[in-house]
Protein: NADH oxidase
Organism: Mycoplasmopsis mucosicanis
Amino acid sequence: MKIILVGSNHAGTSFIRTLKTVIPDAEITAYERNTNTSFLGCGIAVWVAGEFDEPGGLFYSSPESLKNDYGVNLKVNHEVISIDKEKKEVTVLNLEDGSKFTDTYDKLVFAGGSWPIEPRVKGIEFKNVVLAKTYEHAKHLIEYANDPKIRDVAIVGAGYIGIELAEAFHIKGKRVTVYDIKSHIINRYFDDNFTSVLERKMASEGVKLALGQEVVEFKSQNNKDVSSIVTDKGEYKTDLAVICIGFRPRTEAMTELMKTTNGAIIVDKFQRSVSNSDVYAVGDACALKHSVTENNRNVTFATNAVKSGLVAALHIAGLNIPFPGVVGTNALNAFGCHYTSTGLTREVARANGFEDAESVTWTDMDRPEFMKSSEKVECSIVYSPKTLRILGAQIGSWGESVHTETIYMFALAIQQGLTIPELALTDVFFLPHFNKPFNFFLVPMLKALGLNYKR
């Protein structure tokens, strides 16, 4: 059986490693449009901030490793531009010399990834209006961060990448303004009690927030370099604009397949296209079933990419381990805030059929008062009062003790459809070095059950 793999970043690399581990003589030909594989884009902001100098650690695999260690016929700088699913044939463009050729397959695994969404506004083509996704993008951002002529930086988009880059450029001494059409930052993942704290911290450090504003134009004084950014509420000077408003699947070549409205390929629990059982889609290119809303959603996190590649490889190898569903577990570390969330926020839950969704929040110190040190931690749980089903959770801490991994418990509970009583009575430990008997994990669930104990 001949397998063609389109793309070899997180999902593609995971697919190769898994299938070649289970079936060492599996025949895989992989086409990758870039010159590298497995680039950890989540490390771009850390690199820009100057926390390390050499970017080698941002790659956990390489074309040479996939070729030599796993025996894959990998061709970098090659892009699959069309796919004939009747003939089981792909047309490939050699990006080095411009030549084209065709190749055939028995099974096709599409890991084409995603690309930053670029607003359709005047001036988007100006120099210094840049994206943040690839290794090449990262190298340009490093140059801008170290360029003394770049003083004012506009971050367009107040999601995770935007906030992380805002901190990175702030660390490099730039004057940073974050623009977003929404009224709160990171609003897809956190409710106001968390976002407002981070907004205040950013403001206290001198980072400006231009929220509730839509970017409508970029201007240039020399018709080359961006000089200002125009929103529906004003015009602001800038030397650099970084576009971070989200990602869109790169699935243009995958015609005649069922997709979501943003172009993600809808797959079954084994990563097969629901339209064609000989075609698999993994990573950012696919839409996975959401465990809460039960519809297919395009959730562009590296963790989901890796697992979807694994599931597809195991299925091709005859090991039917289904993808259990996605809940969007994520984390952010910026401006002294250590945040993590999973599932739905209260606002998102209410907009997705859970009209009665409520949330309960508990803020406390993480360890008993008799310990020499303890730090504040906050936990919010989103749930249905009728069924007590857990729909989402958010955790924040602000000191040296970071409690983000506690979210794993909530992620598993949401994925399995557990209720608050079921999770609240889970057998967990108490040790004063780490927590309290009535701790930030347990107490908000007790509050949701009406048990409001006196402190």
